Amino acid sequence: MAKSPEVEKPNKAFGWAARDSSGVLSPFNFSRRGCTLATGEKDVRFKVIYCGVCHSDLHMVKNDWGTSTYPLIPGHEIVGEVTEVGSKVQKFKVGDKVGVGGMVGACHSCDNCANNLENYCSKMILTYGAKYYDGTITYGGYSDTMVSDEHFVIHIPDNLPLDASAPLLCAGITVYSPLRFYGLDKPGMHVGVVGLGGLGHVAVKFAKAMEVKVTVISTSPNKKKETLEHLGADSFLVSKDQDQMQAAQGTLDGIIDTVSAQHPLLPLISLLKTQGKLVVVGAPEKPLELPVLPLLMGRKLLGGSCAGGMKETQEMIDFAAKHNITADIEIIPIDYVNTAMERLVKTDVRYRFVIDIGNTLKSSS
After folding, report:
1. pTM of whole model > 0.90?
2. Which of 147, 156, 299, 341 has the fewest CB atoms lying closer than 10 Å?
3. Strand 329-332, strand 352-356: pairing
4. Is residue 235 classed exposed, middle or buried when 0-12, 13-18 and 19+ CB atoms within 10 A define those classes?
5. 292 CB-near residues (< 8 Å, 6+ apart)
6. Closest of 238, 244, 235 to residue 191, by C-alpha
7. Comparing C-alpha atoms, which of 184, 239, 210 is closest to residue 316?
């Protein structure tokens, strides 16, 4: 006989959810599974203290990708403090600072999982808006509590502030992974970063910590001062300035392209040295035009990357702690989140919104 939802998920929870593709978020009572049932013996339950607002949250609440299930609680840059652990949990204890990023499940038996690439597992389960093993829909971090299998929980080192480290669980790993995988992490290399938003500003910080020379490529000339003086980039190119772009042709070993809007690839490919690598981590809604001849003539590589596996995500967080890397954030209360989404559409944030869940999310019941 099937168990009732309240038996399966005995812990009452509270968050903010979108009810339809208008994307408007409002208070929502729900429940999470416990750590004491046999199914939860490897689960970690934690109090959510902060949650970052990712651009994909905006796409998901509005069903831009056609995959959203309502009610939908977004949030996959979730940090907090452990309040309960299952009987077989080995890596965490009550009181630990932890985080959960973009996924909460995978098959654990395919080649990708065996190689610590759970993010590319065909059965990977997203942190919100996906079907969990028990058939229920996953809910994200715009909520007061979170439960996850310990395999998908990240330990946050004590010297990292929770609020400014939350975005690293998505934005951080999204740029760290390709820098490592494509070998753009060697001291003295020259790497370009396209776009200076939530992903781009963190990419600059990681690349500089790897002792790489960094050039930021942006459409906005007014970002030059902040890029050079605050973020520590070595140079700045205005992508709309043909003279600047032409002068920089053939100078970059690699490029991390973080832009999710439509943009031409040819000018970027031209900036690469022979055998240079252009790595795309932004996801434009429409296909980009790919000029093949410039790739052939310089034996250049166009690649992609999406987040990272759990082992690499922990490595990234530990690297961030060692080098004092955090995101530049604007902390907001939960009742400001709809306004924040409107500002996100206009890229009006420097550079990531983080919701103060611990202090501002209060259940009305």
Report:
1. yes
2. 299
3. parallel
4. middle
5. none
6. 235
7. 210
